[in-house]
Amino acid sequence: MSGGGRHRRRIRIAVPVAAAGLAAVVAGALLMSSANAAPGPATLSLPTVNLAKATPSRAALEKRVAGAVAGDDTAGRTAPKVSLSASTTPAHVDPKIIGGQTTAITTAPWMAQLWYYDEAKDIGFFCGGSVVSPTKILTAAHCTKDENGKTYDWAANGAVVTNTAQLPTTDSAGNTDLHNGTVSGVSRQWTHPSYSPSTINNDIAVITLATPVTVKPIRMTTSGDTASYAAGTKATLYGWGRTTSTTQDISETLKTATLPINSDSTCNTAMRSVLGGVDAFVEGHMICAGDPASGTDARTTSACNGDSGGPLIVNGRIVGVVSWGVENCVKKGAYSVFSKVSAYVGAAWPRVEDTNFSGDHKADLWVRNASTRTGYEKTSNGTSFAARVSQGNWDGVNVVLQTDLDRDGIQDLVVRDSATGDVYWVHILASTGRSATDKLFTNWKTRARIIAPGDLTGDGLPDILSVDSAGVMWEYPGKGNGTFSARVQVGTGWNQYNSVRGHGDFTGDGKADLIARSKTGSYVYLYKGTGKTGSGAFSTRVKVRTWAGYNAFDAVGDVTGDGKADFLARTPGGTLYLYPGTGKATTEIFATRISVGTDFKQYDIFG
To answer: What is the pLDDT of residue 241?
Structure first.
């Protein structure tokens, strides 16, 4: 790549303490009582969320950006000027694109700039990322934790810029120009629990924005994808990293390059040789791409400092996340190394679908008292639920489902009117923080089942399923705004079940699944999602349990916070059991059950 970068100098800019994140505000607002709400789904509402207090002001975020622009630290390392020896540890970088070309943001609208500035600790650095949902950014774990395993606090110190190919610039007066980009605050972050700073293994993370962005997201590849990793497959790299190995200049504009995927054996052998015998490449967790570096910028196309966390794309899906490489990126024989997304989509995708009431990474529970018709939210503590909090009068409905149809990171509810059968979407408007109720479907009175499983089609947007009185299942592909494409028939025979539930991924492959129990024999079946539409939406069912002792079920997502979807089952006596998911598509799909309460007989609706 040619020049066009800038030298990054350290300056001191005071940054005010960040306001409480969106998660905390949502937790407080949604837990407020709405007891004065009139009954009937058309008038139900969620308490107002004060989004203005949920994120720092634009000015505060721009100051963070300015501080990070002037910083000279490297993500994952707080002492960037210390040279890492290949003989002691793999010398990872915030890689760059050397040998690429300039591109417009329209070619990669999902590209994100991650700016981190902690004035108190004198840390400022930049990473890349990908918008995989309106509030979710996929990036590298070394962008969220330092070399000692300490977490960078993105909510307090971070800012994310989207919708621009230009990096921000600052003038002599300290004013920041985002070049028509959108700056967003961060509400929370997730780092792969097995990330190792010393080996740069399991280098994957997800950052949650405080408010949604409008750019088009890109999907991660699936766990079963092998074709994208075949040696010789052409992949596309994007980033703003260094443009030469001889200076610290990074690109002011978005760059791209095409790199061939290499086999694991090629990567392993080459990187061991380049690093002086150090086994740094982990087959199955990492991939490498490109031609061997030449030793100079000439004839080298590589990622480098500033590209960390950015995507490697094959056929419109992320197959790799820029992870590490050698110092200055062009050492002869070296390759750019990426986290292998197919190995991590099962862990990362639940973090994309982790919307809940309390705003953490654990799915909460919504229930309704059968006699008083009061709705309650119960926040997950991991393996138990906190004391219930009233959400007011929820009379006049016979279905309540927890979901996030618009992927704004705020819990929604889908409800059905008992009298008319009309189905409504109760949600928070991100623009105002106020509740809105929209009609989704008319006269679904005879629908035996309504299910909100998440994303079935692989487009990153939640869908709806229903089973009609004849036992036919219909799929309604979501558009991300409370509207749906024309329904598609999934299959028949679904009236043989007395429960069909699903929310999220039970098998760890990044695709939404269903759990169904038969009326005869109480057999429990797994319907594994395929990511396809219509009759091919699910694989052949797999019998995973026999559950005769339960009369109510619920699937709200990942209750424990471990990245695997869980299941809830209630006995006739009122004991509710949590079945932690294992990610296995076998009879071992759930771990040993855990009692989470004995007073659940009083509830007639589970969300």
So the answer is: 60
Which residues lie closer than 8 Å to 531 by C-beta, 6 or more apart?
222, 456, 457, 458, 511
Which helix (H) or strand (E) covers residue 545, if one does? strand 542-546
Cβ proximity of 90 and 280 under 8 Å: yes
- CA 453, distance to chain mean position in Å, is 16
State residue 278's pLDDT score: 83
Alpha carbon of residue 9 to chain centroid:
33
**Amino acid at position 565, single letter:** A
Q: Which helix (H) or strand (E) holds 29?
A: helix 22-30
pLDDT tens per residue, range 69-85:
888 777 876 433 222 22
Residue among 464, 493, 2, 539 at smallest CA distance from 222: 539
Q: How far is CA 50 from CA 25, 187, 213, 392, 531, in A?
A: 7, 14, 18, 19, 36
Whole-number pLDDT of residue 248: 52
> Using CA atoms, how far apart are residues 236 and 254, in angstroms rounded to an integer?
13
Contacts of 145 by beta carbon, 8 Å cutoff, 6+ apart: 76, 151, 152, 191, 195, 197
| Residue appearing with tokens 């990036």 | 139
Q: Which residues contact 421 (CB under 8 A, 6 or more apart)?
A: 442, 443, 444, 445, 446, 447
Residue 125's contacts (CB-CB under 8 Å, 6 or more residues apart) are: 68, 71, 73, 74, 75, 94, 116
Q: What pLDDT, on the 0 to 100 scale, is given for residue 31? A: 30
Per-residue CA distances from 548 to 196, 346, 401, 505, 551 (Å): 44, 30, 24, 24, 8
Report d(CA 429, CA 47) in Å as an integer.
11
Positive/negative CA dihedral, 475, 479, 481, 485: negative
Q: How buried is residue 207: exposed, middle or buried, by Cβ count under 10 Å (0-12/13-18/19+)? A: buried
Pairwise CA distance, residues 47 & 31, whole Å: 8
Contacts 24+ apart (CB under 8 A), 431-439: 432/51, 433/29, 433/48, 433/49, 433/50, 433/51, 433/52, 434/48, 434/49, 435/45, 435/46, 435/47, 435/48, 436/45, 437/41, 437/42, 437/43, 437/44, 437/45, 438/482, 439/42
3-state secondary structure 329-392: CCCCCCCEEEEEHHHHHHHHHHHHCCCCCCCCCCCCEEEEECCCCEEEEECECCCCECCCEEEE
Mean pLDDT, contiguous 10-residue spans, the chain (607 residues): 33 23 33 35 56 72 89 65 25 44 91 94 92 94 92 96 91 84 93 92 94 90 92 91 53 84 93 84 93 59 69 95 75 84 90 81 93 94 95 92 88 93 89 84 96 89 96 96 95 97 90 96 96 94 96 95 92 98 93 97 95
Residues 293, 176: Cα–Cα separation, whole Å: 36
